[in-house]
Amino acid sequence: MSIKIGIVALEGCVALSVHGPADLFSTANKVIRQLGLAAEQYETRIISPAKGNVVSSSGHELVGETRPLTRGEFDVLLLPGIGADSTEELDAALSAHKGIEGQLQAFAQSGGTIAAACTGTFILAQAGLLDGRSATTTWWMADHFRSEFRRVQLADDDLLVDEGKLITSAAGASSLDLALHLIGRYSGLNVARLCAKYLVVDGGRKSQRLYAVPTHSRTRDPMIEKADRWIRSRKGGDVSVDELAGYLGVGTRTMLRKFRAVTGLTPQAYIQGVCIDLAKPLLEDADASITQIAALVGFSDENAFRKAFARRTGLSPTQYRKQFKWG
Predict the structure, then answer these.
(1) Residues 6+ apart with CB under 8 A from 322
(2) What 3-state class would DSSP assign to 69?
(3) Closest Cα partner for 304 from 291, 288, 321?
(4) Per-residue model confidence as pLDDT tens digits over 273-302
(5) DSSP string, 207-274
(6) What is the dihedral of CA 103, 109, 114, 116, to 10 degrees?
(7) Which of 92, 102, 176, 307 has CA atoms 20 to 30 A from the CA of 202?
(8) Are 77 and 116 contacting, i.e. CB atoms less than 8 angstroms apart?
(9) How far apart are CA 236 and CA 117, in angstroms?
(10) What is the DSSP track for 135-194?
């Protein structure tokens, strides 16, 4: 029995999150045939609910069929990421795609599975389908998501969150992880692993923390933005919570409430996170020792730096350098 998958192409979507999964499902069919397990298991179609062809965020045309998002047509729907350079651009795109919310709600109520990649999770949340559930989204829009959808339990460090009939994945190429996860669910982990090997995809990734770009805008909140700029201008060195509150002109309790509401972190945890972010490009580009880098970003104790780095990224500084150093 084949699994009918509708990959939704929307105006301004990220082309990778449409064609990448399509290629993985096609590869899965080849692997299944080679293993002699069954006939082709995946029937994949690129669909556009509003019009056949759409233009992706990179300016390339995506060819899709004009079909409704109904349970009779599909078993699984996969929503793509929406390309946006700012929260304002994303909000405008989400407003333009409100027309599919009713179809998504009906599809979910009829027992279909919906998977959403990157900023596609905003579409699910906007439709109310993630209320009371856990989800993830692209790391740089996490604060915006958290402020807009307070009834969703955001696990923004996670690369993928599986809530059964609703599955969400993180930034960018996590749409490939999402497709591999679906292949593992329906065809078994062995088929998913072989697909990852054939297409040279790192399967089994758990967190997107490693991939966050430190200098990318994360929030529209003026106080947090001001705090972030000041911490980075100090290059992480000797920044205390009291100093930060003084710079912002607020009491420490007010600052604590604001940081927790907007970022989900205490000011101290946020400061430490910025210090770790500052260390990443030094590990990637510089030949300085771990001890030197720790001192440069405000850690007087190398061991404390190593522990904090591992806690935030899941890798030791040495492992991170080995994985991401260029040249």
Answers:
(1) none
(2) coil
(3) 291
(4) 889 888 988 898 878 899 999 998 888 889
(5) BSGGG--TTS-----HHHHHHHHHHHHTTTTT--HHHHHHHHTS-HHHHHHHHHHHHSS-HHHHHHHH
(6) 70
(7) 307
(8) no
(9) 33
(10) E---GGGHHHHHHH-TTSEE-TTBSEEE-SSEEEE-STTHHHHHHHHHHHHHH-HHHHHH
